[in-house]
Amino acid sequence: MKFSRTFALLTIALLPFSGATQAQDKPQIQLHWLEHDSARASVGTTWGVPWPQGAVQKQSEFTLNSEAGPLPVQSWPLAYWPDGSVKWSGHAIAPLAVDATALTLRPGASASPEQALTVTENSESIRVDTGTIEAVIVKSGDRLIQSITRDGRKTLNNGRLVVLSQNRAEPEVGEPLTVNAFNGRVDNVTLEQQGPQRAVVKLEGKHVGDKGRAWIPFVARLYFYAGDDSVRLMHTMIYDGDQKQDFIRGVGVRFDVPMDGPLHDRHVRFSGQDDGLFAEAVRGITGLRRNPGEAVRQAQIDGRATAPLDEWAKSVSDRIDVIPAFGDYTLTQLTADAFEIRKRTQPGLAWLDSAEGGRSSGLGYIGSPEGGVAFGIRDFWQSHPSQLDIRNARTDNAEVTLWLWSPESRAMDMRFYHDGMGLDTHEKQLDAMGVTYEDYEPGFASATGVARTSELRIWALPATPNRETMVQMARTLAEPPQMVARPTDYESAGVFGAAIWDLQDRSTPAKTAVEDQVDFYLDHYLTQVEEHNWFGFWDYGDVMHTYDHDRHTWRYDVGGFAWANSELSPDIWLWYSFLRTGRADVFQMAEAMTRHTGEVDVYHLGRFEGLGSRHNVKHWGDSAKQLRISTPANRRFYYYLTADERVGDLMRATLGAERRLLDVPPLRKLNRDRPDFTGKPYSMMMGLGTDWNSVAAAWLTEWERTGEPEYRDKLLRAMRSIGEFEHGLLSSGTAYDPDTGRFYRVGEGVSGSHLAMVFGGVEINAELIQLLDVPEYEAAFIQYGQFFNADSEEKAEIIGQPYNRNLNLGQAHSRMTAYSAWKLKDKALAERAWNEFFGARAGIGIYGTPYPTRTVTPPDVLAPVTEARGVSTNAVSQFGLTAIQIMALISEEAPEEVPARD
Asked: For this UniProt entry, which residues form the secretion signal (predicted)?
C-alpha cells in the first residue's frame, strides 16, 4: 500500500526551515509554460504553486530563476497549512524578455525589477503606470477606464460597459419591438494589488438606463503588469431581469480611440481562423485604375506610413478625395463555425460583405502609424454569439465595441423551455420525474441570479503592428500564457488529499489497462465537445449528462439528462487528471468547466443565492437548488493553480449558503413536515452527505486561505459532533447549528445514500482527515468505507442492526473501501476494494485497448459522431476518480492482470 509515500511526505513536512539555509537545500518548484509557444506575444502572467507543509514560512519571499538569470517576481500567500506555513503561493511576472522554457522558484529574495509598476490613488481615481502605458480609472461614474496613455499620447478614452435590452424575444407582426440601452455605472472601486509586478483593480456596479432603471450587476477586474502594454479585463454580468419580458440584445465593452493621420494610413485588422488575418486600410489605394506607386502601395499593405502625397503619382494623389473611405467595420461570430466581416463607408449606406470563414480567434485593431489599439475576446468562437465593432474610423474619434453577446444575434432568451405541462403539485412532479428525470417545479426554473464571466484583452500600441505580430497577439488572446509546475511537484507537496492521488502508473498489465481507459475518457470527452458543438455563451464549458443511442446524440432535450451541471464531479475528475498528467488540453477543458459551472450553474443573488441547480435542459431549470453544485470543492483547484480572484470570490460567497436551505428545503417534495426548532440549540436539519460536504469545503477553503481560526473551529466542532454519533456519518436525522457548526442527533436509524460522497465528499474528507486530528471523525469515515459495499451480514455487524438495502454506485464507492483498507492496513479489505472496482457494479468495466467505439455517419446523423460503449458523464467521472484514487491508495494490492469478467 501507499505507506512509503506517506512517510516521505511526513519527512518533508518535518524538515526545519531557516532563512539561512543554502539555496540548494531550500524547497524549489520547477515551472514551465502550460503550452510553450515562442510565436506568442509576451504578456504578464499569474499562477499558483504548492509547498509541502513546514517548508515555506509565512513571511517568505521568493526568487525566480531562468537560464538567463534571476527574474523579478511578485508573490503572496494563497493558502496556509495548519502549522501556519505556506501551502499555496501566488506569483506574478512581467512579460518575459527571454524565451524561458524552464524556471525555478524557491524561497529567497526576489530580484529587483528594472521597471516597476507604480500605482497612485486618491479619492477620485487610481492611476496605474506599467512603465509602458498609463491608465486612469475613476472611482465613480459611467467609465470603466477613463484613459490609457502611451508615450504621452492618449491611445484609448472612455472605456465603458453597455447592455441592450428589448421587450420581446423576437419581432411579431403588429407588435412594437423596443430596444433600450443601459450604461454601466461604477458604484465601488477596490485596489486589490498594487505592484511592483502586478496591479489589480476591481470595479462593481450596475447598468443604468435613461429612465433610471438599474439592473444587470457587473464585476470587472483590470489587470496590469510591469512593462506590459496590454490590459487584461475580466467581466462578469449577473442576470437579474424578468425573463418573460427582459430579453438582452447585446452585452458589450466600449471605448473610444483617438485617430490621427490621413485616412489611407489608418488601418483595420481582424484575426480569422488559425493564423488568418484580415488587413485593410480605411481608404484603400490598391486595385485602383491608376497606380500611386509600388512603394506607396507596399507601405499601406504593411501598415506603415505612406510617403507624402506629393511623392505619389499625381493621377492618384490629385483624386484622393474621390476614393471611398470605410469608417465602419464589423466582425460577427454568430455560431461556432462561421464568422463574417463586413464594412461600410458610413451609417445610412449599404454594407459590403468583405470576408467570411469558420472560427475567428476574436482579435481586432484600429489605428495608424502614430498609434492604435488592439482588442479581443478570449474564447470568441466558443462563446458565440460574439462581435467586434469599429465605428467612425473616418473621424477624429473611432468607437470600438467588444460584444460579448452580439446584437446581431437572437436576443438572449432566459425563459424555461416548457410551460409546466400541468405539473402543479409535488405528486405530479415526482411522477413526471420517473420518465424525464426532470425535477420541475413552478417558479424554480428561474435565471434570476445566474452569471457569466468573460475574459478580454486590450493592447495600447505605438503603431500599427505588422502581420506576424498581430498573429502572435491573436494566439496570446486565444491561449494566454499560463505557468504551471510539474506533476511531481504537485504530488510531492501533498495537496488536495495527499493519499488519494498519485502520478500515472503503468507498471503492470492491470494498471496499464486502467490508466489507458482513464486517458481514453479524457480524449473522448474532448472529442464530444467538438462533435456535438458544446459551445455558446451560456453553455461553453459544460458537458452533457447522458447519451441517446437511438438518436445518436446526447439527450440535450430530455429533462434531467441534458447539461451535467457538475453532477457526480466531472470538474474534480478533470482537475485530478491534470495534476497527475500535466496535459494542457485537460487543463483547458477543466478551466472552461470551472468558469461555467461556478457562474452559470450557481445563483449569485436573489432567492437561491449561494445554491446551484441540478442537471437540466436549461442550466438553471431544475427545481433542486443545492449546495452540491455551488460547492468550492469544484473550484479550489483552479483558484490555487491560477490565483484567480473571481473564482476566489465565488468560493467565499458560499460561506453561510446553507441557510438558504431553510427557505428551500431539499426534501420539501417528500411531504416531510418542517420540525419546530423553538428553544433548540440548532435551527435546521442537514444530512451528513452532499450538504455537509459542501459546507465543509467552504469552511476548509476559507480557513486555509486566511489562516484565521474561526472556520477551523467550526470544522472541528462539526467533525467531533459527527464522530460522537453512534453511527457517525451513517446517522440519519441530524440537525445543525450554522452559527457554531455543531451537529445534533434528532432522529434514529442509519442512512446510506449513493450520492452522499460523490460530489467532492471523498476528496474533501480526505483533506479534512489529513489536516485535522479528530480521531472519532476519522473512525466514522473509515466505518463508512467499510460499510457501503459490504454484504448484508457485514453491514449488520458494522452497525449492530439489520440493513438489507443494496446501495447504488458500487464501483464508485470501491475507492472508499480502498481508503478504509489503506488506513487500517487491511489487505483483505484492499482485495475487496479491487474486486469491487473491477466488478463495476453501477459503473464501467475495463474494456481493454482499443476501447470499443464506432463512428456513426450520415444519413443516420447530421455529421459523423463517435460513440463509445458505456459512456455517461456520471459513470465516467466516477470511474476516473475511483481509478485514480484506488491506484494511489492500494496500488501494491492491485492484481497483475485485469480479472476475467463473468
From this structure: 1-23
User: Residue 763 in contact with residue 633, Cβ under 8 Å?
Assistant: yes
Q: What is the distance in angstroms between the CA of the first residue and the CA of the last residue of the chain? A: 27
Q: Environment class of residue 482 by beta-carbon count within 10 Å: exposed (0-12), middle (13-18) or buried (19+)?
A: middle
Please choose, from the candidates 546, 565, 566, the residue with its C-alpha nearest in 3D space to the C-alpha of residue 556: 546
Instruction: Give residue limits of the domains in the chain.
Output: 3-16+28-107, 118-283+324-414+444-478, 666-807
- CA gap 401, 256 in Å, rounded: 9
| Opening angle at CA 26, ends 22 and 30, nearest 5 | 130
Q: What is the mean pLDDT of residues 65-85?
A: 95
**With 0-12 CB in 10 A as exposed, 13-18 as middle and 19+ as buried, what is 540?**
buried
Residue 132 has a pLDDT of 97
Secondary structure of residue 693 in the 3-state scheme: helix
Q: Give the orientation angle of helix 584-599 with respect to helix 570-581, to 10 degrees.
A: 150
Secondary structure string (H, E, C) spanning 588-631 = HHHHHHHHHHHHCCECCCCCCCCCEECCECCCCCCCCEEHHHHC
Banded pLDDT at 98 (limits 50, 70, 90): low
- The type of residue at 30 is Q
Confidence of residue 487 (pLDDT cuts 50, 70, 90): very high
**SS3 at position 561:** helix
The model's pTM: 0.96
The x, y and z cell numbers of residue 550, run together, are: 437511438
Burial of 895 (0-12, 13-18, 19+ CB in 10 A): middle
What 3-state DSSP class applies to 730?
helix
Whole-number pLDDT of residue 902: 65
The pLDDT value recorded for residue 20 is 34
Q: How many helices (H) and strands (E) does the chain have?
A: 20, 37
The pLDDT of residue 901: 75
Mean pLDDT of all residues belonging to the chain: 94
Distances (CA, A) of 224 to 185, 376, 475, 574: 22, 16, 19, 30
C-beta neighbour count of 541 within 10 angstroms: 26
Digit-coded pLDDT (tens) for 13-62? 333 333 333 344 689 999 999 987 777 889 999 999 999 999 999 999 99
* Residue 779 · residue 723 · CB < 8 Å: yes
Judge whether 317 and 307 are in contact, CB under 8 Å. Answer: no
Identity of the amino acid at 876: V
Q: What Rg, from alpha-carbon coordinates, does the chain have? A: 29
Amino acid identity at 787? F
**Residue type (1 letter), 353:** D
Place 321 in a pLDDT band, splitting at 50, 70 and 90.
Answer: very high
Which secondary-structure segment (H or E) carries 471? helix 467-478
Contacts 24+ apart (CB under 8 A), 414-423: 414/239, 414/241, 414/243, 414/246, 414/247, 414/447, 415/169, 415/243, 415/244, 416/445, 416/618, 416/621, 417/557, 417/617, 417/618, 417/621
DSSP-derived secondary structure letter, 492: H
Architecture of domain 118-283+324-414+444-478: Distorted Sandwich (2.70)
Please name which of 242, 299, 290, 220 lies closest in space to residue 267, comparing C-alpha atoms. Answer: 299
Percent of the chain with pLDDT over 70: 97
CA distance 330 to 351: 10
Which pairs from 525-533 meet CB under 8 Å and 24+ separation?
A: 525/589, 525/876, 526/585, 526/589, 527/866, 528/554, 528/866, 529/589, 531/863, 531/864, 531/865, 531/866, 532/865, 533/336, 533/337
Cell numbers representing residue 173 in the block: 407582426
Q: What does 713-724 look like in DSSP terms, one character per residue?
A: HHHHHHHHHHHH
| pLDDT value for 12 | 34
| Helices 814-824, 761-771: inter-axial angle, 10-degree rounding | 20
C-alpha cell at 761: 465528499
pLDDT tens, 657-700? 999 999 999 888 887 777 889 999 999 999 999 999 999 999 99
Burial class (CB in 10 A: 0-12, 13-18, 19+), 212: exposed
